[in-house]
Amino acid sequence: MTDTPPFVEIVSLSKRFGSVQALDTVSERFPPGCFHALLGENGAGKSTLVKCLMGFYKADDGNILIDGRERRIDGPQSVQGLGLGMVYQHFTLVEPMTVAENLVLARPEIPAVIDWGAERADIARFMDDAPFTLDPDAPVSSLAAGEKQKLEILKQLWLGRRFLILDEPTSVLTPAEADEVLGQMQRLTDAGTLSVLLITHKFREVMTYARTVSVLRGGRHVGSAVVAETDEGHLAEIMFGASAPRADIARAERADAAPYLQIAGLRARGNRGELSVHDAALEVSPGEIVGVAGVSGNGQKELVEVLAGQRSAEAGTVRVARQPWTGARSEIRARGVRLLAEEPLANSGVRKMSVMENLALRDYDEAPLARGILVSRGAMRRKARDLIARYNIRTPGPDAALETLSGGNVQRTVLARELAGSVKLLVAQNPCFGLDASAAAEIRSQLIEAHNCGAAILLISEDLDEVLQLSDRVLVMSSGRIVYETPGARADRYEIGRHMTEHDISETPEPEARTA
Amino acid sequence: MMEGTLGSWGVLIAVLGGAVRVSTPYLFVALGETLTERAGRVNLGLEGTLVLGAMAGFAVSFLTGSPWLGVLAGGVAGTGLGALHALICNLPRVNDIAVGIALFVFGTGLAFYLGKDYIHPRAEMLPGIPLGTWSDSLAIQSALEISPLFFIGAALAVGLRWALFNTRWGLLLRMAGDNAEAGRALGLSVNRIRLFATAAGGFLSGIGGAFLSLYYPGSWNEGLSSGQGLMAVALVIFARWDPVRCFWASLVFGGATALGPALQTVGITSGYYLYNAAPYIVTLALLVWVSNPREALQGAPRELSISR
């Protein structure tokens, strides 16, 4: 780790996709040892910029200079020798293979026959110097999300790359893991042995780790600053311009009432047969938002699937309105249970069906939509027009296929369908994942509104900020258990983060056994 | 019921010899399919590849008088079908299962069409290695005459397992099967890796076919294969995509197949057809045993359509 990072300069880079100017004469300078954050909403042009830099896109106009020399970058291969490396948001590791195998695979020249003795010695030497240490023999599938992220970074360092682009690296990490990863990056950049370009939309990360920051909006460079000389409010102003999302939403005080959803001793297995939900217990009362925080893959998906009736529980009880719950359509209707599953296009909508048909999926078999065994398209259309106007769904019309809508509008469509009518219990999983800040703010205010109308809401989210913003009570799910509970108002994000990484499967008594 | 001095020993040795004989084509097809599936594709056309390989092997041996050239020809014919499968599947939005079934029908049909003229003549057969010369019993001598292809297959199983974990070729193949995206991120052509893996799988299956027509049963006709190519797919699942376990699984299947004929040689003929169904029953039983309604298969390459 002795070589110095390259000096990277971007000079008035432009890129157009069809009628959209994704990047408009953007210039940036990244001197060796910089820790530079690139801030912006979804669609601001952050990804386009780095993809041009990494050779995945060819810029229409502009230059890229590395160590003062202009480089023609026309394909991912042409960046290979330049010392630039990218760590993707989604892991590119081969899960069934070990850490060592993944490292060897990343090398540009893999020997025909691998001398594992020599490779191991090399890897051990490398690990001595590296910012993180991992067991070379551990299969990647056994690593926690934070360790996988570390391995992605180690892979780039192993390849001798000294200019790292980190694309939303903390989206799947706990605060403590994020601190460790970004803190180590900061130490290396301060020592001058590494340059980091951090793509993010989280102000906290920018303020804590980056030294310099620039903001993109609508493909344009709209501002830069030295982090020490700016503050979050200023950055938000640059990032959102005039349309800053509402920070807080008026919420009604909840009246204490008997729990509407009661889960006790719930066990369920995941797709690979592992115990995913492990004696989980929780309750949600009317007019209450209970937020479940946790790192992805700790049983949240399986829990939601059990509640949706898509997965059968191995043990335990689920009660809604004091009655056993199986997720049958008649129960859903009678007890007013609604679901916002994650990735709505895949899980709660039918992509090829029209917006109108998707909006009718809950009540196509009831009057006024149903007439005997027929469905009235006229009634469906009237209902769709009404919901499209009320929920501000931007669609070419009721007949447009759901998949042609943007992510935010797909989520609005599903939300409109789920919230129309009387909702008594709403289960929402990562409802704002992948949405830009203004769409997310709108979805969140809809959740608060449902809460103000007296619905019991179970919010299961990997976005800790979202959980903290919305919840009356915060629970933490780890290894399939609810391991921690705290009132939303007094929640401490580090305390929560610490519980998120509890991987203790020993038979300790449940901290919270609220079985009636 | 046991008669004669050989009695139960005779049955055991006959089953063992039969197992070795019958398992060889299973082994080659299963090794081939393991390679293909490790790279992330299922080739269900290996039954067609097997039959075409059998025909090609027999024809070339008949025409040149060299059975080993026949084995090579079987492999080459299989390589062709395997490569065809891979090339079609490399096109966007093509399903490997459907292509496999189409090539199964195509391969068998092509073999029957081209092989019409070779049904009657006798071709030069592969020699066996006589390991039973120590015994006076003809039954034992014939049971222990083992084809060199069996040993080649066994060595290949060990070699492939080593290669999957210790060579560049093996790592890339496994990466293509476990995370194609990772391969693309490294700038590799996953399609090309799969082309090689499927073609190599076809080569091995073709050799399995040549064994059928050139060693045991050792003739060419339209009823030559009794579904070994399809059963081998099940066998790969049972063996959890491990070449060495493929070897043991093939022996179990071979033994089940040899049970009926072996019992017949000692005079037990009742339930003959039931014994002949043994391999199929074993297949079913094993698959039921290893599958679990709540679990995805352990060890399955993650890119396979069956594990997604």
Describe this structure in words.
The complex is a heterodimer of chains A (516) and B (308). Chain A is α/β, with parallel strands linked by helices. Helix content of chain A is 31%, strand content 25%. Chain A is built from 16 helices and 22 strands. A 6-stranded mixed beta sheet of chain A has the order 6-7-8-3-9-10, with helices on both faces. In chain A, strands 16-19-20-13-21-22 form a 6-stranded mixed beta sheet, sandwiched between helices. In chain A, strands 2-1-4-5 form a 4-stranded antiparallel beta sheet, with helices on one face. The N and C termini of chain A lie far apart (59 Å). With 308 residues, chain B is mainly α. Helices cover 69% and strands 1% of the residues of chain B. Chain B has helices spanning 7-38, 46-64, 67-90, 96-115, 138-143, 148-166, 168-178, 180-185, 190-214, 228-238, 243-265, 272-276, 278-290, and strands at residues 129-130, 145-146. Chain B is globular. The mean pLDDT of chain B is 87. Chains A and B meet through helix 2 of A and helix 7 and helix 8 of B.
Question: Features of this protein?
Answer:
heterodimer; A: 516 residues; alpha/beta; 6-stranded mixed beta sheet; 31% helix; disordered C terminus; B: 308 residues; mainly alpha; two-stranded antiparallel ribbon; 13 helices; 2 strands; globular
Brief summary of the model shown:
Chain A is built from 16 helices and 22 strands. Chain A is α/β, with parallel strands linked by helices and 516 residues long. By secondary structure, chain B is mostly helical.
- The level of helicity of chain B is 55-70%
The radius of gyration computed from the alpha-carbon positions of chain B, rounded to a whole number of angstroms, is 20 Å
Distance between the termini of chain A: 59 Å
State the strand order across the main sheet of chain A. Answer: 6-7-8-3-9-10
Largest sheet of chain A: 6 strands, mixed
**How much strand of chain A?**
15-25%
Share of β-strand residues of chain B: under 5%
**Order of strands in the sheet with most strands of chain B:** 1-2
